[in-house]
């Protein structure tokens, strides 16, 4: 009975429990399906959001880089501006009179150059405005000379090694580009002295002025520098008639684009040996020397300061001129008892390595105490030719002097032949020549042979 009641109670309850259990399984499984779908959607959404954030971050990074670059540029520009402003401020201050006075400065800007190929000087110092300059140069000539003298006159042969010329020169301009100065010191044979010292003003090509101690503008060979002679020495005619150097004033110019040249000068007339004047002695004859010179250059300006055609002229250049000196000197010595008039006519040309020069001299000496005048004349012609352009040159000269036209057997003659080799133009060259000198005599002629070798360097 009890068992039947238990069975009747348990069976319905078991059935209800089973129904409830089966009804509850389905919602749980459905819920789990919905949860899986939502998770996938959320992941996709998160990925999308992450992608958007990454893109936004990349754009922000680019903007940050742009800002950094801009900051760096602005900082650099600021530094440059500050540096330039500071530099300009410092320059402005140093340009004031106060700064110059404190620092002890005030010299103008200078340019220093070493120009070893320049014609005369080598070291040049000048201001940037060109109103001041100083040019310094030097020259040395070492010479060997052998003389084969005439035994018939009881003379012995001689040979010497000598410093033929040792010169130091200073030149330039001062106060302006037109006012120049020049000084040359002579150390020949270790007897130091001043060779030239003068100032010259060149406002116009047609009119210039020179004052001081300088070469008399008389014969062209004397005006040519000893550094640029065709042969080692000047001719015997030039040495006899030239007026050398003197104290004076010279007005000169080259009008018509250099086709014409002129000199009008007045000198003390004392010659190159001025020992008496340095001792304070007056002009002993109270007379001055006057010099007039005129020249025509048919093909334009002519460089008569160089006896060679080292420049190897492409076009023909020629010159013809004449000079006269009143109260002139004889062998560079002023004669107290004579009134001298000396004249010279010259001509020359250069063309493609050929140089040809000629000079003819006349001198008239009238005794102040009366008596017959003495007439002298002389001549030289010389020819040079570069067998190797600007390097190897052959040269020859003939010169003659008649010291007194009234004496028939006093004529002197010179025959000289030479060869020159130029290492660096006139700045470094070697010259060798052979000379034959003849002096006529009453009974027999006196003859002498001469050999010379000379090296020149300019610095």
UniProtKB/TrEMBL annotation:
The keyword Cell cycle does not apply. Gene3D superfamilies: Porin. Keywords: Coiled coil, Signal. Pfam families: Porin_O_P. InterPro entries: Porin_dom_sf, Porin_O/P. The keyword Hydrolase does not apply. Residues 1-31 form the signal peptide. Transmembrane segments: none annotated. Residues 36-77 form a coiled coil. This is Phosphate-selective porin O and P. It comes from Kuenenia stuttgartiensis.
